């Protein structure tokens, strides 16, 4: 394959073999192959063992290599590990378990029934903590002497010596311990936060007794069984969250004095390295004012407010404070206060020190520091919105230094002293390269270069470029996959694949421009597939994303229609055969496009669609729309039920009956509105699936989606 760069339009084209010269995908290959057969070859469990040595797994053997040499040696094997487990009469592993190096000689790993630590030099198990079979969330503390786990709504601690402590003080329906809160918004992915030594544990306690029980029904039992969930809808009662602290040495449990109001968002928890304090980002329910507060971990008392951030639209903290090596007072904070996500240096005593990075680009991932904490390393879009490059900059201030050279998307794993990183990168025509790269003057090397796993398959040309947004100024990036084979003298149908909402970017300079394989399956069937990241999507700065505030479905549709106008300038596009498909926010966008522009879209397939934002949850819904009482006009304009009578084309709506994210009510009430308006959408339900249809049933789903376009668009 080859890539052409055409100027001045900055269009990238990946050219694939023509049909007849390559194989065609089955649906199973198109849906599941990207995770297996057609996934670019990569190292399994690639990680640092020490600053100078890294390891990976091949065929149940762990190999290691030095930064100074190109050879590899065996670190240990599955047989070694099972021999150690057998001596302790423990369950043996059927394959190499996931493990982490705690030091050059010690690993921590989990079997199905226990957490273990092992000395791989002395070939002995150091500690074992058994895990109850019905445990939910399970977390091992640093040092491996304590494990926290949940059962139902309760939280427990097991010590390596066998002692078990129940952390939760009550067993009340609607009170939950140790689990994620705030519907996984604000970067929250769990409810257990061990201190650096593992001697203390912070945890969430969620009281959702005031939150309405939403009726989810399991239809697979002989008599359908109600399985209600607590679902706080926009403008309604929300959960009350507290942060508890458990001290392992005394078995004491206390709570931080987080104060009033009762309903607020407590996010981005971080321990200071000396374990004296806990930092918590407080966000008001309106989500326009954040306060970073410091608490004494010994008694839970409030110490002081370190800083505050406000925005007329919203503030959305996503990352906890990251402390510098060797310091219990200095930390780096990520914020979009200047319009883009950047790094800021703070001190617990001195407060704000300086802004570390700046510019009209986003820091997308903070990697770490060098050993002395003088330099910080990160991934960013500085080279362009489609790129992810690795950079470093001095915390004392100075020029940005780019550490990666190849265009594309880089994902780095930094060693502990910031001297080397393992770099997995790809671009539109490079499947995957893994390289060892020095942060200084030392030269690295390529460790693995994946062959093209799709070499034998017929792929359409992939074109990546930009068009101008509805404001006439902002560039928007698109991906266009042309039919296979392609004849510019013919006319082809187009499927627009859309998401369009916050926290997602569908087009990057990654392998196949991040397209996945289903669009190529459709290209092989004679369709062009078009995707555009409109304003409101991710990694383009605060103004780009938040312009949709209080008016969801307006700016996004405006930008998508600019994409349609651009498509219509191509003589080979059949303008009478344009379809659209998306899921979740993409389902909302599919319906919005079909109903606002029925003259354009002949066919649509909307999966798990939001149809009325007042049915969506508090945290996400109120961030972008405020409450229904505060923004009645915005809610009314985005209520797709009110447009049910505007449906003209063929529309298939799909929903999971167990959906606890975009609840079933959205599509059911939309159907009712269509019945009342006399319009005729088609409908399909997956009885056992929540918000997404995963596993083997996803093949069925995509066959359903594809067949609908074949029947009514092709």
Main attributes of the structure:
globular; 714 residues; disordered N terminus; five-stranded antiparallel β-sheet; 14% helix
Model description:
This protein has 714 residues and is mainly beta. Among the domains are: 2-39 and 453-712, Alpha/Beta hydrolase fold, catalytic domain (Rossmann fold, 3-Layer(aba) Sandwich), CATH 3.40.50.1820; 43-130, no CATH class; 364-451. The chain is built from ten helices and 47 strands. The strands form eleven sheets. It has a ten-stranded mixed beta sheet with strand order 1-2-40-41-43-42-44-45-46-47, sandwiched between helices. Strands 15, 16, 17, 22 and 23 form a five-stranded antiparallel beta sheet that branches. The chain is globular, with a radius of gyration of 27 Å. The two termini are 28 Å apart. The relative contact order is 0.09. Residues 1-9 and 15-20 have low confidence and may be disordered.
Average pLDDT:
95
Distance between the termini: 28 Å
Considering the protein shown, what is the CATH homologous superfamily of the domain at 2-39 and 453-712?
Alpha/Beta hydrolase fold, catalytic domain
Stretches where pLDDT falls below 50 for ≥5 residues?
1-9, 15-20
Q: What's the helix count?
A: 10
Number of strands: 47
Mind telling me the C-alpha Rg?
27 Å
What percent of the residues sit in helical stretches (DSSP H or I)? 10-25%
């Amino acid at each position: 394959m080859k890539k052409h760069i055409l100027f001045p339009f900055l269009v990238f084209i990946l050219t694939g073999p023509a049909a007849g010269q390559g194989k065609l995908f089955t649906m199973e290959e198109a849906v599941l192959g990207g995770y297996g057969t057609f996934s670019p070859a990569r190292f399994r469990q690639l990680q640092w063992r020490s600053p100078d040595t890294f390891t990976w797994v091949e065929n149940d053997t762990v190999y290691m290599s030095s930064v100074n040499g190109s050879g590899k040696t065996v670190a240990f094997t599955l047989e070694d590990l099972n021999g150690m487990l057998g001596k302790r009469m423990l369950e043996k592993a059927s394959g190499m378990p996931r493990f982490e190096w705690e030091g050059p000689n010690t690993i921590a790993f989990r079997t199905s029934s226990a957490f273990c630590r092992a000395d791989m030099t002395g070939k002995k198990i150091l500690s074992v903590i058994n895990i109850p079979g019905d445990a939910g969330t399970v977390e091992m503390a640093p040092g491996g002497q304590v494990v926290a786990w949940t059962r139902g709504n309760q939280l427990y601690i097991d010590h390596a010596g066998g002692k078990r402590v129940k952390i939760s003080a009550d067993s009340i329906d609607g009170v939950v311990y140790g689990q994620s809160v705030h519907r996984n918004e604000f970067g929250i992915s769990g409810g257990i936060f061990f201190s650096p030594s593992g001697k203390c544990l912070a945890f969430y306690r969620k009281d959702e007794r005031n939150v309405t029980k939403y009726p989810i029904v399991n239809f697979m039992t002989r008599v359908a069984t109600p399985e209600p969930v607590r679902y706080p809808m926009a403008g309604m009662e929300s959960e009350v969250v507290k942060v508890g602290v458990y001290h392992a040495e005394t078995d004491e449990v206390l709570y931080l004095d987080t104060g009033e109001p009762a309903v607020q968002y407590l996010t981005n928890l971080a321990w200071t390295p000396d374990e004296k304090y806990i930092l918590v980002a407080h966000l008001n329910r309106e989500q326009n004012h954040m306060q970073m507060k410091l608490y004494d971990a010994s008694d839970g008392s409030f110490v002081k407010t370190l800083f505050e951030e406000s925005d007329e639209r919203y503030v959305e903290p996503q990352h906890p404070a990251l402390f510098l090596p060797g310091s219990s007072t200095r930390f780096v904070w990520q914020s979009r206060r200047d319009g883009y996500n950047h790094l800021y240096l703070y001190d617990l005593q001195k407060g704000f020190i300086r802004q570390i990075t700046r510019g009209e680009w986003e820091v997308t991932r903070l990697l770490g520091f060098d050993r002395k904490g003088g330099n910080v390393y990160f991934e960013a879009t500085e080279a362009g919105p489609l790129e992810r490059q690795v950079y470093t900059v001095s915390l004392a201030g100075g020029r940005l230094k780019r550490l990666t050279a190849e265009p594309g998307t880089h994902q780095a794993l930094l060693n502990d002293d910031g001297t080397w990183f393992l770099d997995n990168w790809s671009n539109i025509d490079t499947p995957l390269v893994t390289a060892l790269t020095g942060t200084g003057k030392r030269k690295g090397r390529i460790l693995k270069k994946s062959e093209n796993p799709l070499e034998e398959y017929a792929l359409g040309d992939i074109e990546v470029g930009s068009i101008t947004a509805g404001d006439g100024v902002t560039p928007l990036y698109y991906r266009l996959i042309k039919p296979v084979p392609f004849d510019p003298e013919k006319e082809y149908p187009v499927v627009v694949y859309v998401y369009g909402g916050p926290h997602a970017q569908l087009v990057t300079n990654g392998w196949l421009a991040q397209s996945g394989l289903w669009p190529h399956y459709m290209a092989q069937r004679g369709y062009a597939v078009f995707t555009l990241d409109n304003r409101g999507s991710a990694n383009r700065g605060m103004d780009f994303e938040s312009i949709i505030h209080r008016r969801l479905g307006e700016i996004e549709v405006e930008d998508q229609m600019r994409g349609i106008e651009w498509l219509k300038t191509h003589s080979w596009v059949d303008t009478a055969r344009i379809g659209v498909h998306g899921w979740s926010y993409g389902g909302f966008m599919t319906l919005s496009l079909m109903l606002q522009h029925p003259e354009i879209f002949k066919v649509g397939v909307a999966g798990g669609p939001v149809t009325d934002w007042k049915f969506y949850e508090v945290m996400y819904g109120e961030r972008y729309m405020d409450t229904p009482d505060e923004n009645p006009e915005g809610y009314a304009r985005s209520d797709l039920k009110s447009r049910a009578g505007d449906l003209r084309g063929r529309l298939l709506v799909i929903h999971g009956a167990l959906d606890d994210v975009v609840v079933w009510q959205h599509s059911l009430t939309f159907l009712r509105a269509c019945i009342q308006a006399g319009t005729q959408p088609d409908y399909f339900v997956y009885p056992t699936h929540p918000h997404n249809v995963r596993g083997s049933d996803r093949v069925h789903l995509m066959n359903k989606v594809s067949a609908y376009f074949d029947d009514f668009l092709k």
